[in-house]
Each structure stands twice: as C-alpha cells, then as structure tokens.
C-alpha cells in the first residue's frame, strides 16, 4: 500500500514535473513569433499535467483523484502534439524530440499505473486517508 504525505511524493507527479521543467527549458529556445502560439500552448499543457495530479490528490476521493489523473493524461497527449508541431517546424532536433518524447512516455506509464492503483482502491472500498494513501 502506497502512502504519500503530499502530491509531491508521488512518482507520477515527479515524472511529470521533470517533463514540465524540460519543456520550459526548450521553450526558451523558441523564436519570438512563437511566444503567443506554440510556446504558450505547450507551457500550458505541460503545466496542466502536474496541476491536475495535484488537484486530484487534494480531493481525497478515489474516483475524483482518478478523474483528475485522466485529465492529466489528456494534457500529456496534448503536450506530445505540441512537441510534434515543434519537430515539424524544425524548432526541435530529432534527438531532442526523442528525448522529450521518452520522458513523456515514462510519465504516461507511471500515471497510468497510478490511475489503475487508485481505481483498484476505489473498487476494493479502501478508505482514503488524509495523507493520500489508499
């Protein structure tokens, strides 16, 4: 049984946070004409991942936690689309794209595992404790 004292202790959050930081670094290299287009979109989508994980954790209800984590997963998918756009526009090298996509896929896997865990807790009727464990 996993126990988290904060959403910051969750592996899903840690993975998503590292991805978000790398996306932010990449965005600093984008041309000025992309500030209100691609940059704004990819920053928002990558931030939405961690924000939804945090909000789900704070709900202290398994089904709500899972729902917010599914929204976080959707934001990961949106972030991947923005990375595809950056690659297509040649703002990103193939090597950098592959590295960021690998980080994104790892975050996706860990998040999927967390969603499955929370859903299992809900199905088994395990009470939610205040520190975030099942």
Could you write a compact summary of the structure shown?
The chain is mostly helical and 134 residues long. Helices cover 74% and strands 0% of the residues.
- What portion of the residues fall into strands of 2 or more residues? under 5%
Q: Helical residue percent?
A: over 70%
Number of helical elements: 4
* Principal-axis shape: elongated
Q: H/E series, N to C?
A: HHHH
Q: Cα-atom Rg, whole angstroms? A: 16 Å
Mean pLDDT: 93
Distance between the termini: 7 Å
Unreliable residue runs: none
Describe this entry's structure for a reader.
Helix content is 74%, strand content 0%. The protein is elongated and about 50 Å long. It has 134 residues and is an all-alpha fold.
Layout of helices and strands, plus pairs?
Blueprint: H1 11-27, H2 35-58, H3 62-88, H4 94-124
Helix pairs in contact: 1-2, 1-4, 2-3, 3-4
List keywords for this structure.
mainly alpha, 4 helices, 134 residues
């Amino acid at each position: 049984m996993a126990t988290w004292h904060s959403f910051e202790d969750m592996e899903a959050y840690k993975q998503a946070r590292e991805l978000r930081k790398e996306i932010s670094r990449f965005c600093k290299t984008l041309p000025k004409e992309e500030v209100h287009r691609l940059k704004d979109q990819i920053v928002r989508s990558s931030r939405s991942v961690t924000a939804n994980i945090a909000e789900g954790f704070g709900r202290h209800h398994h089904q709500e936690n899972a729902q917010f984590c599914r929204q976080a997963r959707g934001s990961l998918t949106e972030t991947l689309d923005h990375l595809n756009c950056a690659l297509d526009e040649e703002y990103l090298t193939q090597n950098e794209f592959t590295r960021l996509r690998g980080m994104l896929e790892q975050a996706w896997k860990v998040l999927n595992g967390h969603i499955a865990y929370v859903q299992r807790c809900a199905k088994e009727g395990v009470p939610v404790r205040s520190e975030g464990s099942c």
